[in-house]
Design a protein that fits this description.
Blueprint: E1 10-15, H1 20-30, E2 34-36, E3 48-52, E4 55-61, E5 73-75, H2 79-88, E6 94-95, E7 102-108, E8 114-120
Parallel strand pairs: 1-4, 5-8
Antiparallel strand pairs: 2-3, 3-4, 6-7, 7-8
InterPro entries: Glyas_Bleomycin-R_OHBP_Dase, Glyas_Fos-R_dOase_dom, VOC_core
Protein name: Glyoxalase
Domain VOC: 7-120
């Protein structure tokens, strides 16, 4: 028997306590994600849920630690338009080492969560 996977259901990104309004503004208005209903049973935990493309992004609340290498990567249709949009919204871009077949860069949300955008070049 082997595990048969269907799809990636969700990723979780954490923010510090009492920062939901700042996170909502960034993820909804700057990145253009859509807020979706969080189950009633989980609402007392804080945070909120989002959707982009066919991926759920769960914003959770916890005390923040040292940032690491962990990050979500979103493939975008037009990397240059994405870059221009972020710069226009005062989001600093971090140029990443390029890899064959992709153009990519990273940036940080207001809570120092690293996010990568990439686009196929071939």
């Amino acid at each position: 028997m082997s595990i048969q996977y269907k799809r990636l259901h969700h990723i979780q990104i954490c923010i510090p306590p009492q920062q939901e309004d700042i996170a909502r503004d960034f993820y909804l208005n700057t990145l253009g994600f859509q807020e979706i209903n969080k189950p009633e049973q989980l609402r007392n935990n804080g945070g909120f849920w989002l959707k982009v493309a066919n991926i759920e992004v769960h914003i959770g609340v916890e005390k923040m630690g040292v940032p690491g290498k962990r990050h979500p990567a979103f493939e975008v249709v037009d990397i240059e338009e994405a870059r221009k949009h972020l710069v226009k919204n005062n989001v600093p871009i971090q140029e990443d080492t390029q890899i064959d077949g992709y153009e990519r860069f990273s940036f940080f949300d207001p809570f120092q969560n690293r996010i990568e955008f990439l686009s196929r070049t071939i």
